[in-house]
Each structure stands twice: as C-alpha cells, then as structure tokens.
C-alpha cells in the first residue's frame, strides 16, 4: 500500500508524459534531424497518401495551382507547388509536419486540417516522398534551413514571425 502511494505520483507523471507524447501535436519537444530516405516502403506510403489527400489541390505532379504566387479575388493564396520549385524548402521539418497535419487555417490560410486522416508517420512519409523529388540544391538549401531553425522558438527568432498552430 505504502509502495503504491509512493510510486503513484511518478506513475501519474509518466502517464501524463506518455499521453502528451502520443498526442503528437505539431512539436515533439525535441529537434528531429531528418535526412532524405530511399526506403521504398516509406516512399510508396508517402506517394499513396499524397495522391489520396493532396493531389486535388497541389496537383498530381506536385506542380501547385497555376497562379499560386498571387492571392485570388478573395485574397486567399492558392495551393503552392510542392515539387521544390516554390518555397516549401523554407519550412523546417517540424513546420512541414504541422502544416500537413493541421493545415493553414490557424494562420488565415485555407488548407484544411488532416488531423483525423493523417498521423505523424503518414505526414513524415509524405515529406520524405516530396523531398525525394526535390532537386539536390533545393534539398541542400532545405537542410541548412532546417538545421538553422530546429525548433519553433528558433524559427520565430530567425524570422521575427509567430508560428500559429491549431493547438495555440
Ligand atoms: C483544399 C486544398 C488543399 C489540400 C487538399 C491540401 N492543401 Fe496544402 N495547401 C493548400 C493551400 C491553399 C496552401 C497555402 C496556405 C494556406 O492557404 O493554408 C497550402 C500549403 C501547403 C504547404 C506549405 C507550402 C509552402 O510552400 O508554403 C504544404 C507543405 C502543403 N500544403 C502540403 C499539403 C499536403 C502534404 C497535403 C495532403 C495531405 C495538402 N497540402 C493538402 C491547399 C491544400
């Protein structure tokens, strides 16, 4: 009995950590340094998910909307290309995951949330697949950017902007 009483607060803490960890959120609390992968299973998973959930807006070949660099008549930004030709490399790993899982609506954008359909590993598979198609120099620029802004706090300091997510 005494033993249970003594261990239970620790257990509660461990459980709480586990729950927050599993919840995923957009920020795991630790910088994740990822490199491109050529693992065929991961890439196939990413491609499949992309075609299922993303191609309708971002294009079958990831080419984005035609006038993606101009807001439409309602002032909304159209879906940008994800093929390495636009500014996707300007988002560190954690930010890409946040964008893919929770969309852009928390920041005034129109991309919907995929929280229910896409889990963290799915989002990672999509990023791996997208990056497997980026030209090497774009990927290298992304790596630098990612290494320089490995946490939301680093990114906010570097850009002077706030990263608002649906969990804020
Ligand atoms: C209904 C259309 C729509 C769908 C579906 C959609 N997006 Fe988007 N996406 C957008 C729009 C529009 C933006 C621009 C930001 C905003 O308005 O939220 C965007 C922005 C992004 C960005 C940021 C790119 C950059 O260069 O800044 C990424 C990454 C992204 N989408 C990935 C995805 C992925 C991966 C999927 C599939 C899971 C997906 N999107 C599904 C419309 C969509």
Automatic annotation (TrEMBL):
Chain coiled-coil ranges: none
Gene3D superfamilies, A to Z: Cytochrome c-like domain
Signal peptide span: none
One Pfam family this sequence matches: Cytochrome_CBB3
GO molecular function per UniProt: electron transfer activity; heme binding; metal ion binding
Domain Cytochrome c: 41-134
Superkingdom of the source species: Bacteria
Record keywords, A-Z: Heme, Iron, Metal-binding
Entry keyword Heme: yes
PROSITE patterns noted in UniProt: CYTC, PROKAR_LIPOPROTEIN
PANTHER family reported for this sequence: BLL4482 PROTEIN, BLL4482 PROTEIN-RELATED
Name assigned to this protein: Cytochrome c domain-containing protein
């Amino acid at each position: 009995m005494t033993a249970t009483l003594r261990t239970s607060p620790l257990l509660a803490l461990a459980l709480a950590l586990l729950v927050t960890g599993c919840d995923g959120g957009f920020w795991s609390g630790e910088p994740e340094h990822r490199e491109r992968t050529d693992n065929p299973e991961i890439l196939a998973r990413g491609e499949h998910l992309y075609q299922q959930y993303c191609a309708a807006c971002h294009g079958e070949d990831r080419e984005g909307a035609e006038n993606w660099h101009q807001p439409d008549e309602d002032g909304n930004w159209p879906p940008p290309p994800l093929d390495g030709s636009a500014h996707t490399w300007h988002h560190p790993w954690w930010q890409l995951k946040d964008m893919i899982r929770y969309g852009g609506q928390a920041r005034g954008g129109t991309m919907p949330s995929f929280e229910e359909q896409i889990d963290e590993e799915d989002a990672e598979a999509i990023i791996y697949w997208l990056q497997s198609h980026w030209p090497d120099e774009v990927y290298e620029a992304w790596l630098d950017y990612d290494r320089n802004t490995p946490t939301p706090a680093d990114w906010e300091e570097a850009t002077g902007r706030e990263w608002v997510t649906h969990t804020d």
